[in-house]
Write a structure and sequence with these properties.
By secondary structure, the protein is an alpha+beta fold. Helix content is 27%, strand content 33%. The chain has 17 helices and 41 strands. Strands 14-13-10-11-12-15-24-22 form an eight-stranded antiparallel beta sheet. α5 crosses α6.
């Protein structure tokens, strides 16, 4: 076995590989850019080598710099993680020439399956059903429009060397095809150093289901069942689960066997993923093969008990697979939510900055979970599990130079329903402050009827949130639970305030039982009857809710039960109440005496400033292009400028007809959130 492995990556996947290497007794080497000097993966590794500036194309994807780090440290193998050089055949070739093992597939498999155009041709030759499209190279925007018309709208423009949603655009007409072609080429060049684009038919109402395969160099190959990855935003996965709630055993078997056959056809070794589009009749069509470890691999590990990183290392060391297809079982249900540094209230635009608070939920030790920095046990059995794969820490910074993913929160339970409920509690328990993040949106998805039913498609987010995410409005029953908890917690805080020492004589504070709770536009008159174990909160209509829990004034997290059901609240103090966040809702909860509530109704409401005649920068980013000039008349939907952040180009468009009166930014300017880009008459 190898003595030392270099991890040619960063963030959570680098940390993930280090954990398994530790379990196997293998030393690790981290590489880092200027931006990652204090990163978690650097702290966790046994050694760390600096490789250049923050930009990935000057550090993490420069093969010569990685090779220098290998020579400096004497690493015998390299794990590439995902992204960066993980699907770069030239990197695999350079390692082979150096006599260093690549923890991944051979060069030919990377070239043939990693390139989307070539892989589709191979799949077609192997009589694998593929999505209609144009597999040749496209020279310019005019040709892209011509081909798009031949294939038939809608079409998907894809970077041939792409992945992770980069270099991908959906076009519904000629204008979008022309515009999307150039943006896809730019993103592909910046992210992968390869700007080749191809076009395929965009299948409406599809499900995205993928098969995990594992092959060795001795001719053995197995599939570890499927992952459902249909909930996506901008072609990037957000929620994954295993198994899929849609597949039956016959379809699962057919997809798995076809995936293994395709892998063997190209001499594949290591872990890989074959992705399919599946229609409503369970017909499946080959999309692509990712010749690397997938971001969402933990859900497969949780339902099978197979440590995929360990298997990749053993295969790279020349060992045969120790498990057969008959050994692969479906055990329970696992769900993964990707926590991103992005603001769901601003159209999911990237957010950067310092994590002033980062407190993940406690990991429950079952199955392949972290215990004292070691991955313990086999697949979980009986007890629910919580796992959090991350590459950040409290006080660290989220950089503008890399993917905005902060963590992957996973839950496992014997049933899908129980796994979803475990995830709801885990999301409510996850504390993140200092940056915009998508925790509220993830909570909303876990409560969405379509997700609960398991009837989602890849258009789920687009269809269910067409105007973006505006937060969650809690149902009456849930709102009462929050109101009852707030009333009980307020009484605890009032008692503490009443016991403050140093009071003037005859100025004792009496804590009453009658209160008014105002939340989400509702007003509840309640009576709080407290005892040693909690409080019984009685509403004016006679309903009573029993509140118990663990909360002390000043705590940022309240773990309560209301009538025996768990209620986890993120809590901040505000005047006459609390800011409470739960199940995706961000609530101002005012708890007042009856007289205070009466007076509060007379207070005027503060209105936000009018920014309707301004184009504000929706995220920290770089102005790539300004499409208009002062004095220009613009139409609704017209492109005004392009802002780049976290390797993605975002086109800002006019919301209505108007005339540009002033432009405050130019190409090359770096802007903060809400900086004024231009103004209108």
């Amino acid at each position: 076995m190898f003595d030392k492995i270099l991890i040619a990556n960063r963030g959570e996947i680098a940390c993930r590989v280090i954990k398994t290497a530790r379990k196997m007794g293998i030393k690790t080497v981290a590489v880092y850019s200027d931006a990652d000097k204090q990163a978690l993966h650097v702290q966790m590794a046994d050694e760390a080598v600096h490789i250049g500036p923050p930009q990935a194309n000057q550090s993490y994807i420069v093969i010569d710099k990685i090779m220098d780090a290998i020579r400096q440290t004497g690493a015998q193998a390299v794990h590439p993680g995902y992204g960066f050089l993980s699907e770069n055949s030239k990197f695999a070739e350079a390692l082979e020439a150096e006599g260093v093992a690549f923890v991944g597939p051979p060069k030919f498999a990377i070239e043939s399956m990693g390139d989307k155009i070539t892989s589709k041709k191979i799949a077609q030759d192997a009589k694998v059903s593929t999505v209609p499209g144009y597999m040749g190279l496209i020279e310019d925007a005019d040709e892209a429009v011509k081909i798009s018309n031949q294939v038939g709208y809608p079409v998907m423009l894809k970077a041939s060397a792409g992945g992770g949603g980069k270099g991908m655009r959906i076009a519904w007409n000629d204008e979008e095809a022309r515009e999307g072609f150039q943006s896809s080429k730019n993103e592909a060049a910046n992210s992968f150093g390869d700007d080749r684009i191809f076009i395929e038919k965009f299948v409406t109402q599809p499900r995205h289901i993928e098969i995990q395969v594992l092959c060795d160099a001795h001719g053995n190959g197995i599939y570890l069942n499927e992952r459902e990855c249909s909930i996506q935003r901008r072609q990037q996965k957000v929620v994954e689960e295993a198994p899929s709630p849609f597949l039956d055993e016959a379809t699962r078997k057919a997809m798995g066997e076809q995936s293994v056959a395709l892998a063997k056809a190209v001499g594949y070794t290591s872990a890989g993923t074959v992705e399919f589009i599946v229609d409503g009749d369970r017909n499946f069509y080959f999309l692509e093969m990712n010749t690397r470890l997938q971001v969402e691999h933990p859900v497969t590990e949780l339902i099978t008990g197979v440590d995929l990183v360990e298997q990749m290392i053993r295969v790279a060391n020349g060992e045969p697979l120790s498990i057969t297809q008959d050994d692969v079982q479906l055990n329970g249900w696992a769900i993964e939510n990707r926590l991103y540094a992005e603001d769901p209230y601003r159209g999911f635009l990237p957010s950067i900055g310092r994590l002033t608070r980062y407190r993940p939920p406690a990991e429950i030790a079952a199955g392949l979970l972290l215990e004292n920095d070691k991955w313990q046990g086999d697949a979980p059995s009986g007890d629910n599990a919580v796992r959090n794969d991350t590459g950040v820490y409290e006080g660290g910074e989220i950089s503008m130079y890399y993917d905005p993913m902060i963590a992957k929160l996973c839950t496992w339970a014997p049933t899908r329903e129980a796994a979803i409920e475990e995830m709801r509690v885990a999301l409510d328990s996850f504390e993140v402050e200092g940056i915009g993040h998508n925790l509220p949106f993830l909570s909303a998805v876990m409560d969405h009827p379509i997700f609960i039913k398991g009837d989602m498609t890849t258009a789920f987010i687009e269809e269910q949130y067409p105007d973006g995410f505006q937060g969650v409005t809690l149902a009456e029953a849930e709102l009462r639970r929050v109101a009852a908890a707030a009333a009980a917690m307020n009484r605890v805080a009032e008692i503490r305030r009443a016991r403050v020492s140093g009071r003037l004589d005859n100025h004792e504070r009496v804590v009453g039982a009658n209160w008014n709770v105002a939340v989400q536009g509702e007003s509840f008159d309640v009576i709080v009857n407290a005892d040693q174990n909690g409080s019984t909160v009685q509403f004016s209509d006679g309903e009573e809710l029993r509140v118990e829990g663990d909360w002390t004034p000043g705590d940022s997290l309240a773990r309560m039960t209301v009538n025996g059901a768990p209620l986890v609240l993120k809590v901040d103090k505000i005047t006459h109440g609390f800011r409470m966040r739960t199940r995706g809702a961000d609530l101002k909860v005012h708890v007042r005496s009856p007289r205070q509530a009466e007076l509060a109704k007379l207070m005027p409401e503060k209105l936000p400033p009018d920014t309707s005649k301004m184009l504000l920068c929706p995220m920290p980013g770089l102005i790539v292009k300004v499409n208009v000039s002062e004095g220009d008349e613009v139409q609704e939907g017209q492109a005004l400028c392009t802002v780049e952040a976290m390797k993605m180009e975002n086109i800002l468009r006019a919301e209505k007809k108007g005339v540009v009166s002033k432009i405050n930014a130019a190409a090359g300017d770096s802007l903060a959130v809400d900086d004024v880009i231009m103004e209108f008459e």
